[in-house]
Structures are given as C-alpha cells and as structure tokens.
Write a structure and sequence with these properties.
The chain contains 17 helices and 24 strands. About 40% of the residues lie in helices and about 20% in strands. The chain has a domain of about 240 residues: ATPase, nucleotide binding domain (Nucleotidyltransferase, domain 5). By secondary structure, it is an alpha+beta fold. About 50% of the residues are buried. A hairpin with a 4-residue loop joins strand 10 and strand 11.
Amino acid sequence: MGLLLGVDIGTASSKGVLVRTDGTVVATATRAHEVSMPRPGWVEHDAQTVWWADFTAISQELTARAPEPVAAVGVSGIGPCLLPVDIDDRPLRPAILYGVDTRATVEIDELTQALGKQTILDRCGSVLTSQAVGPKLAWLRAHEPQTWAATRRFLMAHSFVVRRLTGSYILDHHSASQCTPMYDPVEHRWIRDWTELIAPGLELPQLCWPSDVVGEVQPGVAEQIGIPAGTPMVAGTIDAWAEATSVGVTAPGDVMLMYGTTMFLVEVLDRARRSPDLWGTVGTFPGTHNFAAGMATSGAVTEWIRKLTGASSFEPLVSEAQQSPPGSHGLLMLPYFAGERTPLFDPDARGVLAGLTLRHTRGDIYRAALEATAYGVRHNLEAMREAGGQARRLVAVGGGTKGGLWTQIVSDVLGAPQQLPRQTIGACLGDALLAAIGIGAVKIEQSPEWNPISTTIEPQPGPAAAYERFYPLYRELYPDTRKIAHALAREQRIGGS
C-alpha cells in the first residue's frame, strides 16, 4: 500500500518519519529551530521560516530516501497557536504560541468577567487561561488593529501545512476544543455568538477529526515537497494528542507524560469531566474525552542550565546529577521560569532555587531541576485524580526519556511505574498512524500494536521515601513566595527584561 509520512512541528525542533502500515519505521529526519521571544511573555514562531521551511526540508529528505511511494500524509504541531492570515493566506505576523505565551492576561480577565468563569467552564470544558486561543484573538484585535483589519482566517501549525498542501481550510475537533471560549465540546461545533463577540467577521475553519482525509496534495506544491500530487492528507492535530495516539494511550485511565521543552500530560477519561485547574478537551477520535495538563517549562530549564554552565552536552550534567542524592543535598526548585500553566494558571509565577549554599555543585542544581519537574507532574496528577481521573497507567514519551535518570526520578517522586514504548520518536509517529487510519490501512483499535511497550521504570523504595519529605516543601514554596514573584514579574515587565 505504500509508506505513511508523518511530520511534527515542535517548539524547538521538527521531526518526520516514514512508516510502513505495520508500524515499522523506515526513516526519520529532524530539523532544529528556535522560538522568538521579542518581549517578556511573548513566544512566537515565524510560519514561513519555521513551520513551512521545516516541513519542506523534512519531506524532501524523507521522500528522497523512500524505497516505495508515500500513500498518505499526516502532520501535527505545537498548539493551540494563533497564526492570522489574510485573504490570500499570507501570514500577517509571527504565530502566537500556546500557553507559554502569556501576553493576553488582560483579555483573559475581560472575557471571564463578560461571560462568567463558571459558564465558560460548563460550556467549554476549561476556564480561560494563557492556553486558550480566544483571548489571543481578542489581544490581536485590541493591540494590532491594522493586522486585525487584514485578518480573514486563523491557522495553527498543522492546519497551516494542510492549507498549503491541499487548499483545505480545516481544524480538527480536538484543536478547536482548545480555542476556548469559541467551541462547544459536547455539541462539537463553534459557539457562534461568543466567536462573533471575540472575532467578528473571522472565517472559521471547517471542523473534522484528526484522522479524516481532508484533501490531496496539490500539483502546484507537490514538486517542492517531494510528495506526488494526489496523495491524500489527513487533518492532523496538536502534537501531544498525536503522540498519545502513537503510544496507545487510548483507554480510560491511560496517561501520557511527554518529556519535552515543556512537560505535558494527557489522560483519557471515561466521560467528559470539568476542572477549573485543568484543560478538559475533546479526544482524538469521536466519542473520546481527555484531561490535559501542562507545565510551562521542563526541558527548557535543563537546556537553560546547560547553556548557563557552559556544558557542551547533557552527558556531564546527568553524570554529575547521578552523584547527587535524592533531594539534591537540600536544594528545592520551583520550575516556573516561564510562569506556570496547570494547575496554577499563574503567568507571573517565577523560578525559585531555595536552599543554596557554597557547597552545592552544578550536579546538585541540575538534579534539583529534574526533581522540580517530577514534583510538578505529581501536582498535576493529584489535580486530575481530584477531578475524577483515574491515572491507572502512565506511558512516558519524548526526548527527556533518554538516559534513564529523569524518568527514574519521576517514578520515584510519583511512587508509580512508567511504561516506555518501543519507539519514542515523538508525535510524527502518531501523525503517520492517523494517516494510516484515515486511508483504512489500520483500524483505530489496532493502534496500540504499532508501538508496543518495551520497558517499565519501577519506583525505588529508598528515593521514594526521601521524596515524600521534600514534596510537601515543594507545595509550600510557591504560596510562600508568590507575592514576591509577582512583584518581580511586574518589575520585569516595566524594565522590559
């Protein structure tokens, strides 16, 4: 039947894969890029030089190595994002990224007051936060009126590529469910009155499911990307949900922990549920529902430490951190270096490193960062359980699973095992799987067979006991330092630092 091409556009890199219909990986490709942070709280990507350039380069590289034709294409990307385009689909400004971009705090407050916090939660499944697209559109309209006047449509990373390849203006139901307060996750439709209030005159994309075939590669672009004209393409979705699909997180109680630039969690629910501390979303397939949670940083902090300390790679940092005991010789970090998303929803939270002495080493600091992420995961899982989630099975994915130390620390802090699938190459594998489902080469219930579990990380009793002492201190540190952190965040905005 041919090969499936999957491409994922991530925060710090894009990845692609060629896969056979039985899940066998034929070839992979990666392209690194960076985000732009022109002001405090702003995080952006240029759609042309990042999204399109990455997709084109990866597609060309993989199709040139393909031993047989590509049968279908799937794409995912960071999200929810906001890329305004004009009537000819030309990007009007850099894309405003997901919850790590916190510029729309005023609009969040204004819309919450106008519509009602509980009403929004009941109708949309989530309260308004920096993750939601609605306030970002309101910000664009208020602060960049000339851009808004030219805006006709809005795209995300994956729907931008779909539009370029097929001409279809679509958005999958899951991504739409993160466009709060514009989408109804029960009736699976746009909320027209709220959408008109926020973005009057905006043309809304046609809604579909991630595995739906939404068009074919057009002749005008086929040669540029190396994919034959007429190749079917599915709608795709936001990267975390593609990745959850790729590792068989499909049954109620399944949770994916995605170790990336940020830490992201997706739990499959037995039914639609609501929590003011989490994101309630539509799932990847019809009839499914999820809780989602996301930390604003994880791998971003470890990369910051690597650069700050002059380490040429992560290997020496990991080696030094392994020499530090659980608790990092009495160090405790809050990983809120870019504010925090769930369950705090506090864009003015800031990073804290408590307990420093002259005896502490670079390895202690690096381990404290890994432990901080683990504490954040535990905090989010506790919020999920309190809201009715079950968290019976944890599946770990992403680049942070390599090496073993980080995942071991997380299991020790959680007191729970984590399963690692055979392939941890990322959401691009899920994109290929969605493409296979879309053309009928694979059934949805067969998806776990694509990527079976190969390893289980079990918690260690000794470290787990130590972390039981430190975790309550972690939970106390944020409320005890919040007032100071907020004052410093105000100073940073005033100073433009």
